[in-house]
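Entry 14: structure prediction run for Zn-dependent peptidase. Input pasted below.
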Amino acid sequence: MNIIKNELLKEEVYHEKLSNNMNVFFMKKKGFTKKYAVLATNYGSNDLKFISPHTGEEIKVNEGIAHFLEHKMFEQSDGSNAFDRFAEIGANANAFTNFNMTAYLFSCTERFYEGLDHLISYVQSPYFTDENVEKEKGIIAQEIKMYDDNPDWKLFFNTLKAMYKVHPNSIDIAGTVESIYKITKEELYSCYNTFYSPSNMALFVIGDLEFDEVLKSVKETVKDEHMFEGEVKRIFELETDELRTKEITEELEVSIPMFSIGFKDKLNTLGENTDIMKKSITTEIIHDLLFKKGTALYEELYMEGLIFGGFSSDYTEHTDYGYSIISGESKDVNKVRARIMQAIEESKINGLNEEDFERIKKKKIGGFIKLFDSIEFIANNYLSYYFKGMDLLGYYEALLDIKIDDVNERLKEHFTEDMSVLSVINPKLKS
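Run finished. Output tokens:
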């Protein structure tokens, strides 16, 4: 057993790797009535090509299969649904799939160990048949069509499509109607037996519990099936610093034009030798200093009526991609984009304000500490960081170490015209 401590946060995480290679993490939250567990696999919609650890063959699967697999995991061989058992014990359960992770979770105040046993059991018991796979295709097809009509969703994925030529994160997490209708039960089992191996999964439990009891319960439930040593060998086509296109415009049922400006990380800022956490924090601080509510740029654009209340900006990072997105609504998208680019260039020349930097840094430190009151935030983000090779508890020290020079350097490196794209959703013209 390993104990990961953070003296500044006064938090600690217990960690043990089981004999079947699954990693189990636990954080005690004394006095909390809610208990929470999330069982996740280092597998998401981006994992479309891989080498089977069982046969050694190269496999290419259909787009949207990770999300499809998540849906099918709840169906049990006895005809019941995994949610039914959670409801019986008074637990709230859910699941999600993103580009890089699939997670199954539940929370409750009582009968926690019954819920934990059920969580581990059903995630280890896939039940795919030709009939239930075919039935699911219609359900997911409707979900895809619903998102195709969602302006925010289309705006986001059009931004990714403009930035990335070959990387799979430009593909909708749910896939396409065409791709999901090609999915078979054999393909689902192939992905399950590869990515749902214990060595590719991790469990995080948090609450007013004891680690010995948690570990005992887990060890009594987990199986050794599909076990193999080492990491899954994923195959990715080499992305370049080229953009697919500088601009994508689409018309949908919106009243005001929506826009999204994307900045794609260059290849030399990615890879194993990159300090992902430092890169992420410095970029977050730039967003706080230049674009978010309360900044000079935001206030000017808002007071001039160029943007409205939905203006937002964020940075997303992973080992093999990273991007910033600034989005909102405006009747003059080109003018807003020009003002944003002007603010970036002026900040590069003059440098970011050091007093504002220190203020934002203190604000982020306080906000991060406050987040440790949320057991859901801790568990979900701990595993997300873990799969990226980072420790969530290390975020605090990394944030403390950031200097204004680090932020100014990142500003010049990341926010460049040659790596920027524009996605626009215009109101559909009336016929």
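Notes: The chain is about 40% helix and 20% strand. Will compare against the previous run tomorrow.
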